[in-house]
Design goal:
four-stranded mixed β-sheet; two-stranded antiparallel sheet; 6 strands; globular
């Protein structure tokens, strides 16, 4: 998968050097009255500056030991409801993206990953992007070529399937944005395997991260939501590119049970785990 590849999600109907300043020299007093000599006071040594963290330079290491895997990414998003209209859907999407922006900006500040916000665009049936033409086969897509998440009208229609459908869409595509800025999408070439296997690693990682976020983002994840999510895992319209229902269930459960993003490291998994 190239850097400008489209990565998509589908639901049924188908993620020091310290600066020193020199103080001005003290001027002599205007009188001849002598001043007592100050007793020198030993000063404490300056603390050693902490090294600036850097990203792994080896592409395969970046995939398998990315600094994002140490992160917890809690958020304070709004409780979610099924959107009553397309306008409400768009407002809900933007609110969730803003919430994810805040959470990921804070989390990534502890890593060498430079945070940038993704753009969001809506379209009806088709649109042209740097990654090619998008239709409605997949309701939501992320294009790393312009760091934009695209939502077709189909995303609104499928966003009415269950309470967290919209949150699922947003968090999956946002996970792809994180993969992009963390260098993962640009390093997939280092995996010496078929393109289909690599594609499934990308998708299942985003799938896992999205499910992790559903439980920590403040959207009110409940036992009933869990039943709805499990129902989704029984369907796929792209087993070659997105994986089998078995793999989606495995990585979805890992995300729901995760305490940090390390549980979503698909790059160290055997190919059979992403089949």
């Amino acid at each position: 998968m190239t850097l400008a590849a489209v990565v998509v999600v589908s639901l049924i109907a188908a993620l020091a050097v310290p600066v020193f300043t020199e103080l001005p020299q003290r001027r002599d007093a205007p009188t001849a009255v002598p001043t007592p000599k100050a007793t020198p006071t030993p000063s404490s040594p300056s603390p050693e500056p902490k090294p600036t963290p850097t990203m792994p330079s080896d592409a395969k290491v970046l995939l398998k030991k990315n600094p994002i895997y140490r992160l917890k990414v809690p958020a304070k998003c709004r409780y979610q409801s099924i959107p009553a209209s397309e306008a409400a859907f768009r407002k809900q999407v933007r609110s969730l993206v803003d919430c994810q922006n805040s959470a990921w900006k804070k989390a990534l500040s502890a890593t060498p990953v430079k945070f940038t916000k993704p753009k969001v665009k809506f379209y009806t049936n088709s649109t042209k992007t740097p990654c090619g033409k998008l239709g409605t086969t997949f309701p939501a897509s992320y294009c790393s070529g312009d760091t934009t998440i695209y939502y077709s009208r189909a995303a609104y229609l499928q966003g009415r399937y269950y309470r967290l459908s919209v949150a699922h869409f947003v968090m999956h595509e946002y996970a792809h944005h994180v993969q992009s800025i963390a260098g993962i999408l640009g390093s997939t070439w280092a995996m010496k395997e078929s393109a289909a296997v690599t594609s499934r690693r990308v998708e299942l990682q985003a799938h896992c991260i999205a499910h992790y976020e559903l439980t920590v983002a403040g959207v009110g994840y409940s036992a009933r939501d869990h039943q709805s999510i499990q129902y989704q895992w029984d369907y796929t319209n792209d087993p070659k590119g997105h994986s089998s229902t078995k793999a989606e269930r495995y990585w979805g459960e890992r995300g729901l049970d995760a305490t940090n993003l390390g549980s979503c490291n698909t790059w160290t998994a055997k190919a059979a785990r992403v089949k």
